[in-house]
Amino acid sequence: MNRAPGILITGAAGYIGGSILADFLSHTNLSAAATLNAVVRTEEQAQALSKLSVNVLRFEINDEAAVTAAVEQNEIDIIVHAANSSDPLLVINLIQALGRRRAATGKPVYFIHSSVTTLFSEEAGWPHGMLKDTDSIYEKEKELGGTHPVRQTNLVAVEKAEECDVTSFIIVVPNVYGRGNGECRKVSILIPALIQAGIKLKKVHKFDTDGSPPAAHISDIVALYGILVDRILRNQDVPNGKNGYYFAMAHRAPWWAYMQAIANSLYARGLVVDPELEIWPSDEEAAEALHFPAQFIRAMGTASGGLEPVNSYRLGWQPLWNDEAFLERADEEVQAVLDLDTIRTSLFDQLLRPAMD
Predict the structure, then answer these.
(1) Do 207 and 138 lie in a common domain?
(2) pTM of the predicted model, to two decimals?
């Protein structure tokens, strides 16, 4: 009897990772075809996930020995890395562990890395304009180089996987919204920060330039991960490695219109003095109010970017949310922020560290 493949989800206590785990567990065909393992960092997170039908592992991904032991002892064949998009060391540790398993068993192993769409905007230094996920993205990133931590991590993911005989994929995540269904964090980062800043300042702000960045509801995001993993489990040949970029873009987010919807919602609740939007006095003040790295604030707040998902749709991805639903249900996002704890994640601490050193 063949053993069920082992899947390891990093960031399983986070917004996206936790929602991926919940989605995988809800699909009986997927959960029956594989053994699910979830990585968390704290005992509190481990306790929160312990009631689920998943093997909960607690270790630090920056600990190479711990990663290797976890992959070997739990017979991991597929890693869904949703914990961090900007730390190459984590990617190296995970892929090398998979490579050792590949060498020991002779069976294929897979690494799914989570990146971000803001990387491919003019504001983030992307010079190539309109981009499809079927284009030669790896070559363009390699040629561009630079010190952007997310771009560096993308390149490491592709190159280290090729070196270790690991099949790799990069899902490029846009602005994500909606209430997640994981056990711990249930809201995203950017939109809750904008809402919280409006409440604190008693006034909702917008940037001096309107943006329309790629966006997707959390339910559509996790559906794409599920489809890709299902194709892997079925041994279907799908684009991977240097050709394995997947834009998870369901629609665009018209920022000024959305911030107006947020302002209307907050004003109706008596949380701001009026529904009129105000321009941020400066990028530095916006960064301080939102608790985001100043060097990335333009890309996060004003970017549009010309991205077109092709690989994602060829997989069979059919997102259910569009820009109209995004705008119409902005009040739900406000309510989620009011209902739920919105602690900061380690992602921005990681991005801030070089600026503080």
Answers:
(1) no
(2) 0.93
Residues 128 and 243 in one domain: yes
Determine the 3-state secondary structure of 242 from DSSP.
Answer: helix
Residue 110: what are its φ and ψ, rounded to 5°? -135, 140
Q: By residue range, what is the domain housing residue 41?
A: 6-176+216-247
8-state DSSP, 344: P
The predicted-structure confidence for 167-196, as pLDDT tens digits, reads as follows 999 999 999 999 999 999 999 999 999 999
DSSP summary character for residue 32? H
Using an 8 Å Cβ cutoff, are 263 and 272 in contact? yes
Average pLDDT value over all residues in the chain: 91
**Cβ atoms of 209 and 153 closer than 8 Å:** no
- Per DSSP, the chain holds a count of helices (H) and strands (E) of 16, 14
CB atoms within 10 A of CB 30: 17
Q: Which two tokens stand for residue 76?
A: 């991991």
Structure tokens at 209: 């330039």
The tokens for 82 are 């949703």
Question: Could you tell me how far CA 13 lies from the centroid of its own chain?
Answer: 13
* Angle, CA 138 vertex, CA 134 and CA 141 arms, to 5°: 120
State which amino acid sits at residue 2: N
